[in-house]
């Protein structure tokens, strides 16, 4: 998709104003909380601005003071979750690489646990991402975050193995992002025992894939 078109989309979906006072922040929180509850209740059908306003106990005009449309509300809600991933991965990408297999396994499990915690703590936002992926205006925004996350995974891989070429690191980084996301989305929908089992399975898969790419090609 044309980059200029993407920029126009994102400009149209930006909040109308950033809350600078505590009262304004509370209003925005009410709007986002209402949108989250409605999205969970309605599944993949995005709630209307009117429904969000009614659930938040606000007038539609009050909502429009902060957001131009319902897509902007969903985007702001999802950004709170999506923006949490890059700092976690970037920290790992800049840390010293483990110097033996046991250290690698421990480091990898800690890394996966950090990522898994973001899904577990924000599991109520999963329906929001699904709505965004079904919306042609919002899907490019999710794809942009995915690209950044995959790139950070690639940087982490090249930290583990400096001899790894960029193209191979990018391919594996994309796999880590996609497989991890799909697995953890499934996990948060199950019981805690299922979640723990999926996280352990993810560790096994990632370790096997990592090991085969740690030696120079």
TrEMBL record:
This is TetR family transcriptional regulator. It comes from the Bacteria. One of its GO terms (molecular function) is transcription cis-regulatory region binding. Keywords: DNA-binding. InterPro entries: Homeodomain-like_sf (IPR009057), HTH-type_TetR-like_transc_reg (IPR050109), HTH_TetR (IPR001647), TetR_C_15 (IPR041669). Residues 25-85 form the HTH tetR-type domain. Residues 48-67 bind DNA.
């Amino acid at each position: 998709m044309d980059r200029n078109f993407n920029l126009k989309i994102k400009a149209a979906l930006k909040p109308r104003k950033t809350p600078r006072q505590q009262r304004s922040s509370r209003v925005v929180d009410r709007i986002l909380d209402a949108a989250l509850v409605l999205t969970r209740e309605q599944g993949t059908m995005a709630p209307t601005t009117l429904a969000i306003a009614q659930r938040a106990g606000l007038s539609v005009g009050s909502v429009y003071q902060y957001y131009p449309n319902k897509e902007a509300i969903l985007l702001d809600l999802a950004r709170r979750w999506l923006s949490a991933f890059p700092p976690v991965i970037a920290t790992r990408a800049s840390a010293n690489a483990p110097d033996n297999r046991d250290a690698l396994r421990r480091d990898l499990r800690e890394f996966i646990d950090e990522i898994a915690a973001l899904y577990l703590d924000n599991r109520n936002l999963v329906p929001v991402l699904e709505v965004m992926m079904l919306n042609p205006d919002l899907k490019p925004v999710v794809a942009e975050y995915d690209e950044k996350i995959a790139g950070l995974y690639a940087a982490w891989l090249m930290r583990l193995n400096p001899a790894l070429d960029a193209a191979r690191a990018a391919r594996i980084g994309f796999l880590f992002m996609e497989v991890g996301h799909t697995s953890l989305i499934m996990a948060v929908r199950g019981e805690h025992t299922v979640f723990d089992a999926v996280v352990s399975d993810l560790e096994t898969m990632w370790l096997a894939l990592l090991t085969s790419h740690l030696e120079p090609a």
